[in-house]
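Title: Comparing notes on inverse folding

I've been comparing how different people in this forum approach sequence design from structure. To keep things fair, I'm posting one structure and asking everyone to reply with a full sequence. Here's the target:
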């Protein structure tokens, strides 16, 4: 390292020490902020709700609980009691003449539109 400092730095030790202290405090602040944000991301990942199932089957309220309608997993009309199912199970239900939801259109998503 050369003996002379570039122009933006003060020439005396006292001001250089002050500058070093300031930069050390700033570095500590940056590291603290990064650690805090990493903790926040970790907490958000742990507490995030699970992803909804891809499809849901709504069942009737009678004793038989027969399938009534197929919904996308994110459809609000499915209700709480609608069981999450795989795309294959949703296809089978639609092929078995279970009605598709007219709002979320799972039959369109599955490529089962009747033409």
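Reply #1:
Here's my take.
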């Amino acid at each position: 390292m050369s003996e002379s400092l570039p122009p933006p730095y003060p020439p005396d030790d006292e001001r250089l020490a002050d500058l070093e202290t300031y930069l050390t405090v700033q570095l500590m602040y940056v590291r603290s902020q990064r650690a805090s944000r990493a903790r926040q991301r970790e907490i958000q990942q742990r507490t995030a709700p699970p992803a909804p199932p891809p499809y849901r089957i709504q069942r009737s309220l009678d004793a038989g609980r027969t399938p009534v309608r197929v919904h996308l997993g994110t459809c609000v009309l499915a209700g709480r009691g609608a069981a999450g199912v795989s795309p294959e199970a949703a296809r089978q239900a639609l092929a078995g003449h279970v009605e598709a939801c007219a709002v979320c259109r799972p039959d369109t998503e599955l490529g089962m539109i009747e033409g």
